């Protein structure tokens, strides 16, 4: 009933609901870390720097000769990689991570895929890493960034699930809210105007083919309820350097806490 009411009023007052939907898209919720995740962050070397009006929190663990950058998902944060971080440190890696704009311990404000994307590129260049690991939306920001800057050379890239089409994220939000097709169309036009892009062109499958990645591994639970495995299959189908391994029993979030899957990621990074 609530969606029916919202759909009705969004047809009458489309501009109001465009603003509401846009805010929803650009204002991530900050989720509480598990005790173990918070503990791993506590032992990191923590720093801050200014980026696009945000105060960005960064983390560093280990002193190994191998380096890797971890890129969290939308409404995620660096601490979500806690189990993987411990494994990487024990294997001789220096591990870098960060909380994206308006995520985790970074400052709060309206943000988007495109700021996230710029930040990832900046950090890859700053840390000079050749190994990357992303989760969910982090794969979108990273893949588009690598496609935009093919001079960045990456040796190994592990993606714990990846969306493909950015428009699917918009459609998901508007479906959850129950707003009308008119509002959805106007929302897309607003995003295109604000960001100077064409929403229909913002696809991981298109950008990643332009990237300079030697080898990539995509890990995705076939029963993922948050992000359909079809998204990763679409990316894998056009990305010659990638291999998709379909797994079971982890869902969308526990994939980052499942030791057997984390071992697959480590083995791939070291191969």
Q: Architecture of the largest domain, according to CATH?
A: 3-Layer(aba) Sandwich
Structural class, by secondary structure, is alpha/beta
The total of helices stands at: 11
The CATH class of the largest domain, by name, is Alpha Beta
CATH T-level fold name of the largest domain? Rossmann fold
Give, in order, the helices and strands.
HHHEEEHEHEHEHHHEHEH
Under CATH, the homologous superfamily of the largest domain reads Alpha/Beta hydrolase fold, catalytic domain
Number of strands: 8
- How many independent structural domains? 2
Quick overview of this protein structure:
With 271 residues, the protein is an alpha/beta fold. The chain is 45% helix and 21% strand. It folds into 2 domains: 1-30 and 172-198, no CATH class; 31-165 and 203-270, 3-Layer(aba) Sandwich (Rossmann fold).
Quickly list its features.
eight-stranded mixed beta sheet, 11 helices, 21% strand, single chain, 271 residues, globular, Rossmann fold, alpha/beta, 2 domains
């Amino acid at each position: 009933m609530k969606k029916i009411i919202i759909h009705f009023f969004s047809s009458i007052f489309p501009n109001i609901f465009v603003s509401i939907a846009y805010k929803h898209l650009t204002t991530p919720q900050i989720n509480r870390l598990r005790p173990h995740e918070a503990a791993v962050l506590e032992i990191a070397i923590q720093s801050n720097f200014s980026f696009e009006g945000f105060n960005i929190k960064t983390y560093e663990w280990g002193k190994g000769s191998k380096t890797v950058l971890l890129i969290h998902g939308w409404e995620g944060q660096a601490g979500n990689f806690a189990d993987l971080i411990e494994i990487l440190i024990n294997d001789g890696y220096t591990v870098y991570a960060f909380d994206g704009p308006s995520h985790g311990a970074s400052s709060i404000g309206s943000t988007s895929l495109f700021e996230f994307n710029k930040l990832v590129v900046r950090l890859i260049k700053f840390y000079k890493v050749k190994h990357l690991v992303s989760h969910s939306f982090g794969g979108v920001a990273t893949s588009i960034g690598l496609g935009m800057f093919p001079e960045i050379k990456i040796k190994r890239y592990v993606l714990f699930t990846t969306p493909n089409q950015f428009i699917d994220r918009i459609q998901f939000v508007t479906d959850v809210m129950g707003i009308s097709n008119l509002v959805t169309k106007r929302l897309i036009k607003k995003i295109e105007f604000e960001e100077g892009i064409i929403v229909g062109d913002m696809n991981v499958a298109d950008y990643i083919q332009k990237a300079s990645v030697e080898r990539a591994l995509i890990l995705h639970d076939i029963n993922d309820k948050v992000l359909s495995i079809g998204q990763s299959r679409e990316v894998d189908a056009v990305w010659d350097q990638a291999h998709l391994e379909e797994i079971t029993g982890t869902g969308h979030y526990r994939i980052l806490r499942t030791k057997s899957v984390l071992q697959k990621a480590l083995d791939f990074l070291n191969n």
